[in-house]
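Working notes for the structural subgroup meeting. M.R. asked for a predicted model of this chain before we commit to crystallization trials. I am recording the input and output together here so anyone reviewing the notebook later can reproduce the run.

Input as submitted:
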Amino acid sequence: MSSALSKAKGFKKSKSGTYLSMATTAFGAVGVAKQIKKARAEHDTLRLIDATVSAVAIVTGLAILYRELKRLGDDDVLLG
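Returned structure, recorded in token form:
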């Protein structure tokens, strides 16, 4: 039982966990795209700036997760 628990705790540092984090972060881009579209339609500069900052945060988050994925390499927690 403790082996399964330790694997579950290590999920976030596994390739599968990193892929899941990347997917959920990318899913946030859908909401930001809608926010940008709405801000442009309403000519709302402040909302457009907010959406742009959110988009930059998503791109940065994905870059960090990609770097983490490259670092994991073959020493995956769940496979070993």
